[in-house]
Structure formats: structure tokens, C-alpha cells
Model the fold of this input.
Amino acid sequence: MQIKISIVVPVYNVEKYLRECLDSLVNQTLEDIEIICVNDGSTDSSPQILEEYASKDNRIKIFNQENQGVSAARNFGIKNVNGEYLTFVDSDDWIKKDACEILYKTIKERNSDILLFSYFNYYDNFIIQDIRLKKILITAKDKNIKFKDYSNEFFKVPLMTCGKIYKTDVILNNNIFFPLNIHVSEDMVFVVKSFINAESISIIDVGLYYYRRSTSQSLSKNCAINSSYFYKGHLKLKEIIYSSEKLQNKDEVYAASLYNTARVLLSYFNNISNNTGFKKQSIKYIKKIKKDYKPYAKKDENSIIMYKRIQNTIKNYNYLLIKKLIEPIFELEQRTDRTVFYLFEKQILNIYTGSIKNSILRFKYFCRILKLGFLAKFRKLKVAFWYYEPEKWTSVESLYRKFEQSKYFEPVVYLTCPAQPFTHITQKDLTEQNIKLLESKNIKYKKIYDVENDDFLPIEENKCDIIFYQLPWMIKNNQNVITSAKFALVCYVPYCFYSLKTNDNYFRWFHKNLWIYFVETPYHKKEYEEEFGANNCVAIGSTKFDNYKNLNIKKTDKKTIIYAPHHSIEGHNRARTATFMENKDFILELAKKHPEFNWIFRPHFALKDRLLKYNAMKQDEIDKYWSDWEKVGIISKSTDNYYEQFMLSDCLITDCMSFLSEYLPTGNPVLHLRSEHQIEQFNDLLKKITDSYYKIYTNEELEKTFNEVIIQGNDYLKDERQANIKLLMIDENKTTAQKIVEYIEKELRIK
Done:
């Protein structure tokens, strides 16, 4: 009986991971397989491990060769396969136990030459599934398609060895092997050549492979070297495309290949720090690709954008080069509030320019106010909301709606992504979440982040009249406040109720360049004016409290308790306010002991990520804890309207600082979880607010206070809380959003 699947495993010095790989293979639910292990001259204990496993399982076949590289090892394995189908597993990776069974059944039923499947990226702290097959899967569904008909889409799937199974005859009959003189893009060459020669390709979006990510070597150095090899791979691919007898649309396929090469080379270049030597090694290949790309530069909108990126990269490199040449003689350094001159690397002048810059900026804003006031007589003013985090949409939704209702303004959301991801969620997934949220609410939006190319589009090319930023950090340079201030009135409303008395509340580069910083209370305004010399703050209230208005809530007789832990983890929080690891099990048990209450577990959306990042809990422990909560009560999603939950509740248990102010309008008690190591950095307002809450330092205090305040109903701080609500500037007749819109109308003199 013919072997169903041959698995080729190249092995070189992987004693640390080899057993995990082999265990996943020998324990496959499909038994009719062979495991071809090619030892590429390993000098560690890998050969002994192979012999050990081969002595127990005759499906393992070991071949030894002198060290020639992974491509030579894979090619040797291909020449010795006996299976009907062929796949590859690297010796530091592993596959699911039923992977072969699923793959064989699917590729056989569909009669495909190649089957693509998804894989998981395995990092030290978390695992995340690659999602790049989703788009082409919409086209292919569960049918077979051909590479030549969808080359653009195929060049966007992972062109790696993993995640694919091939009909062996397709590989052998078309003499498809890995190139030996390329050490980075050899996978891409092999995969694309197999695509070209396949009559039928199908896709399943099922994660079956675990790909171990390594970050042990220098990124800058690797990227410079990788550029050379990747460009060699591109040239090899060009040769394969134009020599193929199976492609009639060779120019179209080559254009798709060029686009992919340009995207990768730019990514390599951007990952190199400002090291002139490494950048010089990498830029020459971008210049080569620019020459190749020019005939295709106007092919479509994506090609136009890509060609501009190539041009701008070369332009910026030339600027960096000139700067490096001039710096030993003369250097001009622009700091936040200073301009520094150097001559022969000695500082000769250090001028404070903060007041001058601020005065110039204020004058520019004044001129723009006059201009927009005039334009408002003839057209609606475009108000943009720079936005990327769905969990914080509640901070600006009422403001967007109020602008939408005005006859003077036309609001739109500028949908982007963080310059650096806050969690391990991919930029693509984050964008999809945002689009789903915005479309469900009928919000107009314009994407200013190119997901496919990981490119932040210049905000200057998407001009508006007024722009509101959602967050003051993780902003790409070409979308930042300084850039926006060149053409718009730039505003900010805090995404949360600021609680700390630190510079985190006021970044000079961000807040000082705003036209208006709409702060929450006079307390905040006073602090920023005294400590930072701020002259652009308007105390107007928090738009977050607008979420309480128009809520038609009917509370039940059964009390509702919310447990809302922050994402901070003990030992990794500057203010040392985190208590989750200390309290989590006790509070879960408390919920189990009191089924007479409704319980809501409302964790910060980044909590799971932080638990894994800091090795506080393992994935299975996290899954179990969340599962245990599902049995006790409700787990609130991060996109749920938590203000509705606040109004329904009778008590909040939390170590989250921003919730301390946001929960206050309910008038209900808060059991404020505090660490005994906590550094008191609260601002004056929050100090006053927390004095009307129950401060909890131990689990014993938590149980005692819970019994007294919640069960027995002795809420002795209630009157203090009621008095503190007045500090929040909540207007019974107007929302904060309405006050902001009216303020802007007044400033522009359009009403």
C-alpha cells in the first residue's frame, strides 16, 4: 500500500526542540505516513535523538549529509519520498496530532495538486494564528483555483514552506527544488514555482502547524543581509515566470511578484536602525527594484502608492546620508523647546525656543480660525476623528454624533492603527474590528492605514478643517499633531478620566501643539497650567459621562457586582497599583459563595496579553480562569457598553484608576483594591474621589467590607460620594459633546 503522506524534516543542531517536533509526527492520527529526517551535519545531540526515535518507529527514515544548508537538506528529502503527497515540517516546529488526517482527507476529496492551510506563530509569550489566507479563501471558498488567474492574491499569502501540502508527482515531474545559492527567499521560489505548475490549488483556513518565531539575532544586521538574498530570490522568480510555458499572462504575474518584492524590501529597510552601513547595503536593492517597478507604477492605485513609497524611501535615505556627512562639521538639533547648534561636534549655541514656537503656532491657529469662520458660510467644515482603538470609541461617540447633527460640520473617522501594537492582535485584525464597529453604527470613515502594505498614509494627503485625536501616543510621525497643525485646528478630548499627577497626562510634544485641549475639570486645567505652562486648556467636562445620558435602565431586585481588573500586573506597573494576581482567586471564590448576586467579570481588554507577556499565568491557566467565571456570571466584552453595566450595578470592585472617576456618577460604592506597595501618584481630584471609596489592601479586608457594605447595606461613605459627583462638571441640561461643539462654533463665530 502506497504511503499517503511523506513529511520532510531538515535537521541541524535543534536538540532543544527536536523531541517536540518528532512527538507531534509519530503520534499523528493518520498512520500511513513516512518521516524523512535529513541530518545536515548536526554537531549537537540531534543525530542521537533521531536514532532513538527511529529505533522505536520504522516510519522514521534518517539520512545524513555534510552541512550544506536547509535547501540542500530539503532537496535530498524530496528525492527520497515515497508518499502520494508531500509536506515539510522544520525540526524546531510541530504540527497538530490530526494534521495529516485532515490534510489527506481534504486534498484527496478536492483532488487538488496543492492544499494551503493556516499556521500559528509561536512566540515565547503567546501564540497567534496567521490570517493571510482569509482574503483568498473568500475567492476560492472550498473549490480549486489556478495561480495564473489569481496571482495578485497568491502573492499575499505566506510564501513559506510551512502551511502547504503538495501532490508528490507535481513536484517531481516538474523538477521543483529549492535554490541552493539563496538563503532567505528560497521558500518563496519553491512555493511560487509549485503554484505555477499546479493545475489546481485549494485552501482551508484551519491552523494545523506551529511555527516557532526566533528573535535571537540582530534585526538590523539580518535585514541588511536579507535584502541581498531576497533580491536574488526575486531575480530567480523572474526567470521562472518568463520561462514558464504554463503562463500566458507573464507580465501580470511578474507585476504581482514585483509588488511583493518591493513590499518586503521596504519592510527590511525600515527595520534597520539609522546605521548608515546597513542602510547602504539595503538601499541599493530598493533602487534596483525602483527601476524594475517604473513600467508598472501606474498599473492601479496600489501600484501608485507602492511606487511613491519606494521614491520616498530613497529620498529619505539620501537626506540621512547627507545629514551624516554634514554632522561632523555642523549640526542643527531641534528639541521639544530648544534649538541646539553644534560646530565640529561641540555645542556652540543652545536657544530656548518654546515660547517662540508656541507664539507662532497660536498665531497660525488664529489665522485658521478666521479662515474657517469665513468658509463656514459657504460649506460644511470637515471634522475628522483620528481613531484606532475600538475599546475607546465611547470617549468620542457622543461628540461625533453632535457634529453630525450640526448644520455647520461634517464629521468623518480617520481609521488608522497604532505605530506599535498595544497587544499581540494584528493590525489587520484590529482594522477589521474597527470597520465592523463603525459600520454597525453607520459611522463614515476613511482608512489612512494601508493594511496590506503596513503603511501609514500621510495625514496631509487627507486634509480636514478640524481634527480630534483619540489618544496621545503610538502615533506615526506622518500622522502626528505637529503635522496636522499645519493645516487643521487640532483638538483632544481625553480617552479616559486622567487620574495620575505625572507627565503622562501632559506630553509636551502632543498637548502643547493642540489648538484646544478639552480637559475634564478645573483641577486638570490648573495642574497643566501650573506645571507645564499650558495655555490651551478648556475645562469643559468629560465626554465619557455623556454615555450615562439617555440610558433607560431598569434595575432588578437582585444586586449586581462588577469585578473590573486593570491590565497592569504586579511588578510591572510604575505606580504599583496592580492587584490582579493577589485578588483574582479570592474574588472568584467570593462570587461562587454569593450566587444570590449577579456577577459581571469585566477585565481590561489587554489583561490576557499582559498575563502572558510577564509570565504571570500560562495560557491554559488563563483559559480555565475565564471559563470558571463563565460558570459564575457574565464575562463582559471590551466593546460592550460598560456604562450600561455601571448603571445596572450596585457595586464595583476594581484596581483600575480611570474607572474610579467614571463610576462615580452612579453614586454606588467602590471597593478599591490597592497594593500595600502602591506609590501615591493620584492627582488632587482623584485623591478626593477615592476618599469616598472603600480602600482595600488585603483579601480579609475585602471580605469584611463586602459583608458590611453590600450584604448588610451599611454604605457609610454614600453622602461623600454624592457630594463628589459635583466635581465632575456634569451638566443636567447639556452633554459635554454639546458644550464642545458650541464652544467651537463660538470661537469660529459661525453661530
User: Anything to note?
Assistant: Confidence is low (pLDDT under 50) at residues 215-221.
